[in-house]
Amino acid sequence: MRKANRRRRVPARRKRGALAAGAAVAVTGIATAVAVAVWPSGGGDSTGASVPGHKAAVTDPPSPTRTYSLSRTPRTIPAVREHTPARGPGWRPVTGARVVVSDADLADEGRLLAGELNLTYAGQTGARDGDVALGLDEGSGGAESYTLTVRNGRVTITGPSDAGVFYGTRTLKQEVHGGGTAPEGVVRDRPAKAQRGLMLDIARKHFTADWIEDRVRELGDLKFNQLGLHFSDDQGFRIQSDTHPEIVSKQHLSKAEVRRIIDLAKSRHITVVPEIDSPGHLGAVIAAHPDLQLRNVSGVATRGAVDISKPAAADLIDELLNEYAGLFPGAFWHLGGDEYQALTVANPEASYPQLATAAQAAYGSGATVADLATGWLNDRAAVVRGHDRTPRAWNDGFFRGGEVQADADLQVAYWTGKEIGARQPVEYLSAGRELINYNDEFLYYVLGQPQTFVYPTGQRIYEQWTPLVVRGTTAVPTQYDAQILGGVFAVWADLSGAQTQDQVAAGIRMPLRATVQKLWNPERPGLSWVEFKTLADRLG
């Protein structure tokens, strides 16, 4: 299994020594054969146009008197934040060139890049002409930042962590895609938002492990760093369980398949975020445990909801949370908490007297069913917090006022403003809460387009959405920018048969690219939508 995502900082003396062996190229008047190719800067700095002969193994070095045009900023998705141009031939992968690393922690990144560019992985050794050198450098841009330098016929990528270096390799991969050239100069790059994700509803629709792995590779190349798996809902429970095998749907992922997905995600610096939604959306669990189903005062069953006045309901969910904490090693956990049907009626206390009685017994005579639901959410948060996970929940699982407040460290996954008692995002932000943007008007791809949903387009995201646009189309004040941790594009399988999984992949392709552009680079895009789409088509 690949190492865990570490953020070890390497002493400066060691880093400089590791890269110094190949840091400079002597220019002489003697025509010496080296493994680096030379191209005019005007034809391949970032356009990706194929240049005849680019695969030649040995080419004469440039003449000391040769003049090159100033390089242009590379065109990548997402766009790089900063590029300092320079004069020179740029870099392309050629036969005989290598990938070298300054630290053993970068071996995975080095081997991956070498395989992708058909280079030799040479491990911890000095760089030479034509090589790509990966190194750790404390820097000042954050753990996911990197610097990519093309100079003197070689490439150097450094960052304060292996994640940052990995993102630098993704930029280089795009630069040379299809015969393109990495332009001379220096790229300094970093993400605007720390959380950049895709969420998949694998509960309502079974997606194969191979298909999910393809999405992981796609996400990694685009510099996403989270994959959410919503694997429990009314229609299915889709991951193997050892503690409660009776709840698992016939079509599901085995734990071995999930571990393979997680390992691949780690190699791309992607955290897999699991979600077992409760106390609603538990129909698949209730089908095997009908005694836990919530019923109203007339004895009518409430779809998908467990009776949270019953300790057995909490015990079952906690057993599942504890089991899957051993499967998913990431730092985050999604608890759901949305659309508990007991709270969608006019008078929850009259409709569900057993919940009202339990609330008053636990929290005092003034407590309500909303207080009992908040207590349930806090109790589940305590379980995952015990496994060193940071919990998040849907915004309609948070309630105004009452005797019980949601724990302060619960991150708000804000998706809608249409629920009963809906609150604007600013109400959460002004209270100091951290928020993740799942805006359902831009970032929800709901199969079959039920209710008022329409398939989101990349163009609309690219031209109208930013992380500050949390609800509807209106941005929150910029003073809250730091509390918005990032955004997640979500695929929901409400009408699971409406699209095949391949159609889903095609449908979310451009929305994903537009989303990550806005999460990585906060500036207004320099390309028009047509130019951006053309670039995406060229890069594949």
UniProtKB/TrEMBL annotation:
Pfam families: Glyco_hydro_20, Glyco_hydro_20b. Residues 196-496 form the Glycoside hydrolase family 20 catalytic domain. Keywords: Glycosidase, Hydrolase. Coiled coil: none annotated. It comes from the Bacteria. The keyword Amino-acid biosynthesis does not apply. Residues 45-70 are annotated as: Disordered. Residues 74-189 form the Beta-hexosaminidase bacterial type N-terminal domain. Gene3D superfamilies: Chitobiase/beta-hexosaminidase domain 2-like, Glycosidases. Belongs to the glycosyl hydrolase 20 family. This is Beta-N-acetylglucosaminidase. It comes from Streptomyces dengpaensis.
